[in-house]
Amino acid sequence: MKAWVCENPIGAHALQWRELPSPPLAAGQIRVRIKTASLNFPDLLIVQNKYQMKPPLPFVPGTEFAGVVSEVSEGVTGFVVGQRVAAFGGLGGFATEVCIPASLAMPLPDAFSFEDAAAFICTYATSHHALIDRGALREGETVLILGAAGGVGTAAIQIAKTLGARVIAAASGDAKCQACLAVGADATINYTTQNLRDALKALTDGRGPDIVYDPVGGDLAEAAFRSIAWRGRYLVVGFAQGQIPALPLNLALLKGASLVGVFWGEFAKREPTHNARMLSELAAWYATGKIKPVLDQVLPLEELPKAFARMASRDVIGKLVLTQV
Ligand SMILES: NC(=O)c1ccc[n+]([C@@H]2O[C@H](COP(=O)([O-])OP(=O)(O)OC[C@H]3O[C@@H](n4cnc5c(N)ncnc54)[C@H](OP(=O)(O)O)[C@@H]3O)[C@@H](O)[C@H]2O)c1
Question: Where are the alpha helices (DSSP H) in 113-260?
């Protein structure tokens, strides 16, 4: 097999595209011939040794991928050779094959393209868990999505619209705002040229959003929390800006608001049945066209460093996907 190998976690430029022996298939696992993989934020951090999980060296990065089952270990039921699957497996996706626990694989119907499948699980599961399970979003409520043109942001726009919410998408440029409107947002705020609080006041008649979905953190957090509506829910999703904000807790008191943590990976581990039900609902929404991953670029897997460079540039709209024949 071939794989991108990280021997020295000093950045994506140090990854090497190499021939490796096929990994052994352990009990409970399936082998997958990878067709597509996508980039998630942790992929960027893990090859820089900045992620919370630090795998032993060398390792093959790649959190999320889709492909075809090529071997099934004894005792595994529910999967057969030739079956199309997608998985969020933590590691190993930037390669031509990988072995993963069968429990991580999501069977794919024929109509689910490999490109969309590789860009699906992490972003949609995170945003579904955030908005519905943690945020209890109701039809007619207003949701502010920060970093709305990114991976989890575009998924959050589509899920919030599917639930009948009004979506205010906030992002760092006009092109990103335009993209958010095309994905379904009702209104946008360009937070590099507009004051977030003033714009929110104008867009909500001074009431503020019922839910703030925040995968960005940094300076935006306090301004967004100060603007939240009475009984609002502030969803802490991530810190893409690199700075973990601190919030004055009196704001929660004054607005009767909740600060709600979102950690989809841990939820999936602790509540697998609930997670599986959520993924089935998302697959059904995909089948009926209610949601569809926004793909920024689809590049050959050999061009992974180019994809990493684009991700670091902050220009990506939606998801970057790598593909191979
Ligand atoms: N809690 C969970 O369970 C969970 C699950 C998945 C992901 N996450 C987290 O959510 C965050 C977003 O993930 P994603 O996959 O959607 O990433 P992404 O596609 O790269 O989107 C991140 C967005 O953050 C904004 N941003 C602000 N400052 C940035 C900077 N210095 N560098 C890069 N982006 C910056 C960008 O929007 P603007 O340019 O418009 O500001 C960008 O579109 C990450 O922190 C990730 O770890 C959390």
Answer: 114-118, 121-128, 151-162, 174-183, 196-203, 220-227, 250-255
Chain centroid to Cα 302, Å, comes to 22
Yes or no: say if 65 and 32 are a contact pair by the CB < 8 Å rule: yes
For the segment 121-147, the average pLDDT, to the nearest whole number, is: 98
Helix H or strand E encompassing 32: strand 29-38
Q: Which atom of ligand 1 is nearest to the CA of 123?
A: 6
Q: Which residues' Cβ are closer than 6 Å to ligand 1?
A: 40-42, 122, 126, 147, 149-153, 171-172, 176, 215-216, 237-242, 262-265, 314, 316
Q: CA 93 to CA 103: how far, in whole Å?
A: 16
Does residue 166 register a pLDDT over 90? yes
Query: How many angstroms separate the CA atoms of 123 and 40, rounded?
Result: 9
Residue nearest to atom 2 of ligand 1 (CA): 263
Strand order through the sheet with 258-261 = 187-190, 166-171, 142-145, 211-214, 233-236, 258-261
Closest C-alpha residue for ligand 1 atom 12? 215
| Contact between 246 and 219 (Cβ < 8 Å) | no
Name the β-bridge partners of 201. Answer: none
Testing ligand 1's pocket by substitution, the residue of 44, 314, 320 carrying the most ligand atoms inside 8 A of its CB is: 314
Q: Please give the distance, rounded to the nearest whole angstrom, from the Cα atom of residue 144 to the centre of ligand 1.
A: 15
Q: What distance in Å separates the CA atoms of residue 306 and residue 215, rounded to the nearest whole number?
A: 24
The closest-lying atom of ligand 1 relative to the alpha carbon of residue 311 is 20
- Is the separation of the CB atoms in 191 and 211 below 8 Å? no
Percent with pLDDT over 70 in the chain: 100
The C-alpha atoms of residue 169 and residue 318 are separated, in whole angstroms, by: 13
Three-class SS of residue 274?
helix
Q: What is the pLDDT of residue 89?
A: 80
